[in-house]
Amino acid sequence: MFALCALCGAWASRQTYPPLADIVEPMRDRLHREVVQGTLRRAVAPGAPREGADAVVVARLTRQVEVVRDTVAGQLMLVWQFVLTAAAVVIGTAVIAPAAVPLVAVPLLLSLTVFGVLAPATVRRQHTAFEAEETLAHRSAATLASLRDIIATGTRDKAEREVLEAVRAHLLASRELAALAAVRRLIVGLGAHSPLLLVVLAAPALIDHGMTAGEVIGVLGYVLSTLEPAVRLLVQGVGASWIRLSVAAHRLAAAARHPVPPKEPPHPRAPADASLVLSDVTFAYGPAAAPILENVHLTLAHGEHLAVVGPSGVGKSTTADLLAGILHPDHGQITLGGAPLDRITAADLNRARVLLPQHPYVFAGTLRENLCQLAPHTPDHVISHTIDELGMNDLVRRLGGLDGQVDPAALSSGQRQLLALARAHLSPAGFVILDEATRHLDAEAEQRVEEAFRRRPGTVITLAHRISLARHADKVLLLDGQRAWAATHDSLLSEVPLYGDLVGHWNTGAARPDATGHDENAPRANSSDNRPADDTAQRDAGQGRVSGPDAASDHSSSRPSADRAP
Question: Per the confidence metrics, is the pTM higher than 0.85?
Answer without folding.
Answer: no
